[in-house]
From TrEMBL:
The keyword Transferase applies. Residues 2-56 form the Inner membrane protein YgaP-like transmembrane domain. GO terms for molecular function: transferase activity. Keywords: Transferase. InterPro entries: YgaP-like_TM. Pfam families: YgaP-like_TM. This is Sulfurtransferase.
Length: 67
C-alpha cells in the first residue's frame, strides 16, 4: 500500500467513524465529517495532507500525489 491509498483509506475510515458517532452519540459529530471533507478538498488542490505526513513517518512508501 502506498501513501496515497493509505491516506484515502484513513479518510474513508474516519468518515465512517464520524457517521457512526453522529448516529449513536450526538448529531454534532457531523462537524467532524465536514472537517474531513474540507481536508480532502484542500488536499486535492494543495497536495498537502497531514495524515500523509504521519504515514510517511511510519515508513509507508510514497505514491504519485503525496511524496
Amino acid at each position: 500500500m502506498n501513501l496515497d491509498r493509505a491516506a484515502l483509506a484513513f479518510a474513508g475510515l474516519m468518515i465512517l467513524v464520524s457517521l457512526t458517532l453522529t448516529h449513536f452519540v450526538s448529531p454534532w459529530f457531523w462537524l467532524f465529517t465536514a472537517f474531513i471533507g474540507l481536508n480532502l478538498l484542500q488536499a486535492a488542490f494543495t497536495g498537502f495532507c497531514p495524515a500523509a505526513l504521519v504515514f510517511k513517518r511510519f515508513g509507508v512508501a510514497s505514491g504519485c500525489v503525496f511524496k
